[in-house]
What does this fold into?
Amino acid sequence: MFINNLTKYRELIIDKPVDNISVFENTLTQISNIHDQEHFQKSVLRRILFQGLVGGKQPKAIKEALVHKSGWKREAFLNLPNEGILQIVENPDLTAFIIEEYLSYKFPYPIINQEAVIEELSFYDIRRDDKIAEIGAGSGSFAILLYLLDLRNIIYINELQASLLDLINLLIKVPNSMSLSSSFVKIHGDKKSINLPEKVDKIICRMSYHHFDKRKKMLKSCRQSLKSNGHLFLYEKSMSKKSRGDCDELLEYDDLKTFPTKHGFKLVSELHLEGYILLKFELK
Ligand SMILES: C[S@@+](CC[C@H](N)C(=O)[O-])C[C@H]1O[C@@H](n2cnc3c(N)ncnc32)[C@H](O)[C@@H]1O
It folds into this structure.
């Protein structure tokens, strides 16, 4: 069912008209060449395209930022056609799913990493009627995957940044048009609290926990917003040592595991997924 819904969603978003499809495809092909090269460039590229998507930046500014941030392979970035970059950002549904690596950069943008997505979703063990909160949802792409499970869930999409909430507003239109059984509720987050109006079964922090400035307060708020049999999930990059290009705020493996256990949570299980780690906690 999930795969059918994801396939349908993909068809809906790639069908959206783009003015100049050949420039768009050419740009994506060039991006995919860069994308295949090196991890550092890949993460930089994703970040900059994401900024373009959120900040409505002009293509020239996006390319300059790419060159500036990467420091090398100048030609590769400068060769990207302006029009293509603009058009990528003009199909935000497709761009968001490509940046999050659910769809390929290459035409016709097939679904990728399907097994990893299914493995991750299975770990959350989403049940019918569960209330789920994704904290720090970014573009909301992962929350859209939860919606596509079609399990009559209430999905709280919590995000700190107003510009991202605007993007989320835009991106949930297509899934909502599919009229599946789940529903979205947007929540403007803050630095100290997850601001949920009720207790939930699952709280998912996907690559957001390491950004929390007030980690202790956020964990307290998670404790208060979880049902007694609920679970908190942290999905983070797994590493024992930071490497070049990694986000400065990333946490090391031991920290990830022990800090929540000192603040009211008990580690139940963990899953290692292609460079990422997923931790499942329950209330102590
Ligand atoms: C790397 S993004 C993760 C996006 C998404 N969860 C995903 O898996 O693709 C991290 C997000 O966490 C958000 N964030 C950071 N601190 C937050 C807080 N205290 N409350 C809510 N969101 C927060 C940031 O604004 C950012 O959008």
Summary: The pocket of S-adenosylmethionine is lined by residues 100, 135-138, 141-142, 158-161, 164, 189, 191, 206-208, 211-212, 218 (CB under 6 Å).
